[in-house]
Write a structure and sequence with these properties.
292 residues; mainly alpha; 2 domains; 0% strand
Length: 292
């Protein structure tokens, strides 16, 4: 007997429902999907059969995903709503965010925690998951507290992750600046000033790129910091990129002389012109995976 849309309760039920010889109507498909938990729904896009994944990515279900996105709320602030994440689709934003929440809810289970984070990043390019995994990793190597560990992390950020994180415009560049600043401070504590200076230099370039992108990143800033503004982007509560730059300048001292700053700002402008200026709302960066 064929499964009815109202009787679908699990991922397996939905697979059976979709593979029934009688092709379901779009209204019945939406009814069946609405019966699933948010996580089961998202996991169908991650690990469902080819037929199911193609269906969930089809244009016909765009209104369904838009409705899911529009209903997204913060657990502790139901008045907050996310803004259009374009060029990221609302479906991808929704799925990435749900997986990020699932990771947080399973932090005590290391396997589930990292599985959900990896899916969130690899499949849906979720900023929150990227931020969490980069911060978690730097906390771990801070405990190890060796030059070798910091060197490996620095190499990983520069060679594999920087371009991908920059896709998130001002929030992504601020995240990178925060990481480089933390590394600079750790290197100083280990009395490795040359490495610290390199990190201050990388930090300045990223924070200047963040500044160049700020005027066209209002939606990304709103979503990344849950409507709380740039003060939520750093542990010191600095309210603007100008304040961030002043803070970095004081810490870096001779590493960031005016002549060095000019060179770095020129490099940031070149990156901006090459990848963001032509169509500022749609970055054209060709980026590597965060996990390859």
């Amino acid at each position: 007997m064929a499964l009815l849309a109202k009787d679908v309760n699990t991922k397996g039920d939905f697979e059976a429902f979709i593979h029934d010889p009688m092709v379901p109507k779009i209204d019945d498909i939406e009814t069946a999907l609405s019966n699933l938990t948010s996580l089961d729904l998202v996991m169908l896009r991650v690990e469902g059969s080819i037929k199911v994944r193609e269906l969930l990515n089809s244009i016909g279900l765009t209104p369904f995903w838009e409705n899911k996105f529009n209903k997204l709320r913060l657990p502790k602030d139901t008045s907050f709503s996310f803004r259009d994440p374009a060029p990221q689709t609302k479906a991808d934003f929704y799925c990435g965010y749900i997986l990020f929440l699932a990771a947080l809810e399973n932090k005590s289970d290391n396997i589930l925690f990292h599985t959900y984070l990896v899916h969130s990043i690899e499949k849906f390019d979720c900023f929150y998951a990227i931020q969490l995994i980069l911060v978690e990793k730097i906390k771990a190597i801070a405990i190890e507290n060796t030059i070798e560990a910091f060197n490996l992390y620095l190499k990983d950020i520069v060679s594999m992750r920087q371009a991908a994180v920059q896709q998130h415009r001002t929030p992504g560049c601020i995240l990178l600046a925060n990481i480089y600043l933390a590394l600079a401070i750790y290197y100083q504590r280990l009395t490795n000033q040359p490495r610290a200076n390199l990190c201050y230099i990388a930090c300045w370039e990223q924070i200047h790129l963040a500044e160049l992108l700020e005027s066209s990143s209002t939606r990304q800033i709103h979503n990344a910091y849950f409507g709380k503004g740039l003060a939520y982007s750093n542990s010191l509560g600095l309210n603007s990129i100008v304040e961030f730059k002043t803070h970095v300048s004081k810490l870096a001292k001779d590493a960031l002389k005016d002549s060095v700053k000019r060179v770095l700002e020129s490099k940031a402008k070149s990156t901006f012109d090459r990848f963001f200026k032509v169509e500022e709302d749609t970055p054209s960066l060709k980026t590597p995976s965060l996990f390859k």
